[in-house]
């Protein structure tokens, strides 16, 4: 079985000037989160599309889905967690409580504020997760990477060719992901907020999937302006 987990639990504190979480801001003629959900709805491979929302926005999210996408029994909105790991566990727990999965069942996890995800990236994630068990969507680093421990002095300038910028989706075999999250110590749980880093820490390989430069994450006000520009170009 194949599941999508759309991570929409954040409150968007870096967006500034608004109390509305960034995933609910308008992009073009509809909310950012709807653009994102649509990318999964049109792919028939997903048995369930799980949207993880702040508790006080669950009803709002359901209302938006009904308004823009209509009734769809493949979509469910549940509460996210306090941290990214907690949110992932909530999605896994929902799957385990409602479906009979096996060791080959896949979860494709994606940021709700990356609305320009492509069909190709989704398909590549599914295939890589099936074959390798874990994958991360990345693009090559284009800027020089500078490392500083204290934020004042350069410690190292590594070879750029070896570095990539992480995007999402990140996709995994569900049982393996659950096993590794549950194996984290309290200290590890507090510092590891990225599922792929959990795999790496535990000595598990994570396969690279080619991302796209337009697969941006809307975090700051400028990002929303850029997203509107990309949307207009795509529509034209």
From TrEMBL:
Where is the signal peptide, in residue numbers? none
Transmembrane annotation, as ranges: none
Q: In Gene Ontology terms, what is a biological process of this protein? A: isoprenoid biosynthetic process
The record's Pfam families line, in alphabetical order, gives: IspD
Tell me the keywords, alphabetical order: Cell wall biogenesis/degradation, Nucleotidyltransferase, Transferase
Q: Which GO terms describe its molecular function?
A: 2-C-methyl-D-erythritol 4-phosphate cytidylyltransferase activity; D-ribitol-5-phosphate cytidylyltransferase activity
Please tell me whether the keyword Ribosomal protein is annotated for this protein: no
InterPro entries tied to this protein: IspD/TarI, IspD/TarI_cytidylyltransf_bact, ISPD_synthase_CS, Nucleotide-diphossugar_trans, TarI
Q: Does the keyword Protein transport apply?
A: no
- Show the HAMAP family listed in the entry: TarI
Please give the name of this protein: 2-C-methyl-D-erythritol 4-phosphate cytidylyltransferase
Which organism is the protein's source? Methanobrevibacter millerae
Taxonomic lineage: Archaea, Methanobacteriati, Methanobacteriota, Methanomada group, Methanobacteria
């Amino acid at each position: 079985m194949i599941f999508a987990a759309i991570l929409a639990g954040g409150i968007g504190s870096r967006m500034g000037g608004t109390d509305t979480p960034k995933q609910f801001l308008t992009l073009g003629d509809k909310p950012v989160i709807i653009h994102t959900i649509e990318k999964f709805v049109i792919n028939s491979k997903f048995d369930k599309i799980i949207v993880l929302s702040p508790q006080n926005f669950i009803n709002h999210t359901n209302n938006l889905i009904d308004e823009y996408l209509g009734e769809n029994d493949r979509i469910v909105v549940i509460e996210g967690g306090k941290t990214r790991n907690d949110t992932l566990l909530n999605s896994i727990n929902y799957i385990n409580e409602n479906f009979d999965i096996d060791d080959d069942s896949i979860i494709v996890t994606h940021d709700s504020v990356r609305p320009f995800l492509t069909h190709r990236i989704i398909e590549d994630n599914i295939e890589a997760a099936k074959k390798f068990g874990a994958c991360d969507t990345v693009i090559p680093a284009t800027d020089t990477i500078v490392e500083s421990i204290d934020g004042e002095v350069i410690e190292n300038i590594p070879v750029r060719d070896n570095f990539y910028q992480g995007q999402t989706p990140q996709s995994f075999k569900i049982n393996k992901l659950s096993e590794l999250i549950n194996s984290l110590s309290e200290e590890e749980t507090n510092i590891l907020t990225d599922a792929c880093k959990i795999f790496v820490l535990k000595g598990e390989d994570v396969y690279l999937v080619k991302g796209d430069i337009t697969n941006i994450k809307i975090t700051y006000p400028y990002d929303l302006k850029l997203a509107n520009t990309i949307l207009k170009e795509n529509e034209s």
